[in-house]
Amino acid sequence: MSGAGRPAAIVRQRGKKGIEIALRRELILAGVLLPALLLVGAFAEESQEPLGGLLGDESDGSRAHSTHLIPLYAENEDGEQGEQVTPEAELVLPFSTKWTCGECHSYDLIKQGWHFNAVDSNVPPGRYGEPWVYFDAKLGIQVPLSYRAWPGTHQPAAFGMTEFRFTQIFGRHMPGGGPGEVTATDVDDIGRQYVAGKLEINCLTCHNGHYGQDQGGVSGYAVQVSRQNFRWAAAASCEFASVKGSASAMTDTYDPFMPMGDDKEPQVVYREGTFDADGSVLFDIVRETPNQRCYYCHSDVYYAEKDGPTEKWSCDEDIHLTAGLKCVDCHRNGVGHNIIRGYTQESDLSGSSLAATTCEGCHLPEGSDVPEAGRLGAPVPEHVGLPPVHFERLTCTACHSGPWPGEGAVLTKTSRAHRLGTPNVNKAEAVLPHILSPVFAQEAGTVAGSGDTALVQRSGKIAPHKLIWPAYWATLVDGKVTPIKLDVVETTVKKVFEDLESPGDGSWPQMAEERLAEALKSLGEAVGEKAAYVAGGTLYHLGDAAEVVEEADHPAGAPYMWPLAHGVRPAAQSLGVRYCTDCHSTKSPFFFGAVGVDSPVASAAGGAKEQVEFQGISRFYAWAFSASFVFRPWFKIFALGSSAILGVVLLLYGLRALGGVARVLAEKE
Amino acid sequence: MFQTVAIAIFLVTLAGIGVHWIVFPARSERRGGVCMVAGIVHVFSLLLIEQKQSLLGALKKLCYLVASICFVVLAITGFYPLLVRGEHISGYLMMIHATFAPVFAICLAILAITWAGGYRFETSDCPWLWRFLRRVTALRIPSSEGPCRCSLVVQKVMFWAIVALSLPLILSIVLSMLLLFGTHWQETLLAAHRWTAVAFAVAVLIHTYMAIRIRMACEA
Question: Between chain A's N and C termini, which has fewer beta carbons within 10 Å?
Answer without folding.
Answer: C
